[in-house]
Design brief:
two-stranded antiparallel ribbon; alpha+beta; Beta-Lactamase; elongated; 221 residues; 39% helix; five-stranded antiparallel sheet
């Protein structure tokens, strides 16, 4: 808005322009929210610019995991940080696919600077602007080593339980049955394990044994 001039007859003459900046304010607010989430997240998060595959933004968890400072990462390409082989074989094709609108999820073992190997769940997603254009790619990675280890231990336990000839079962803290082997299923008088999964241990397994013992007159009528 500005003053064009004034005269005695018409007084001051002012001209101004008005434009709608709702989308701009919404985008900026969303950006502030995203930056807050990224900075406080325990996941390894980064924003990559597609033309030269350069890191635009990374969070503290990313820096800690790879033993880098922010100046060593932001503004540098993936190849500069991790080497040409990792860039070409593991990153480039996924980022290119994201730039075409695709979201990608994968899991694999990753070696870190301290020599440890962790099983990581990685998600690649395109960043869309208000007009629908894709301006970048976000990469979010979380450590699921403990989950994978637990799943493997459970798989081994189930193999052992099925071959042992001994009845095995598990229930959660709510008393819902999560696992029974074939032997326990047979001893409890059920046809197959799925007849018990998800049911209350108090209303199925224990009740059935109580009724069985009751028929044997070990409890008074």
């Amino acid at each position: 808005m500005c003053l064009l001039g004034s005269d005695e007859e018409n007084g001051d003459r002012i001209v101004g322009t008005v434009r709608d900046i709702t989308d701009q304010m919404t985008a900026e607010e969303k950006l502030r929210e995203n930056l807050l989430i990224v900075s406080s997240s325990s996941e390894l998060m980064s924003l990559i610019s597609p033309p030269d595959y350069r890191y635009i933004n990374v969070n503290q968890a990313f820096l800690d995991a790879y033993g880098k400072t922010i100046s060593q990462v932001e503004g540098h390409t993936i190849a500069e940080i991790f080497g040409e082989e990792i860039f070409q074989n593991l990153m480039k094709s996924k980022i290119d696919r994201c730039m075409l609108g695709e979201s990608i999820s994968e899991q694999n073992w990753t070696k870190f600077t301290d020599g440890s190997k962790r099983y990581m769940d990685a998600k690649f997603n395109p960043v869309r602007e208000i007009d629908g254009m894709i301006s970048g790619v976000t990469v979010s990675t979380r450590d699921i080593t403990d989950l994978i280890t637990t799943q493997e231990q459970l798989r081994i336990f189930r193999l052992f339980a099925e071959e042992s000839g001994v009845g095995f079962g598990m229930a959660n803290l709510d008393g819902k049955i999560t696992y029974v082997n074939s032997t326990l299923c047979r001893l409890a008088g059920f046809n197959k394990p799925n007849d018990l999964i998800g049911k209350s241990i108090y209303e199925t397994y224990l009740k059935k044994y109580y009724n069985l013992v009751k028929k044997m007159r070990l409890f008074p009528q």
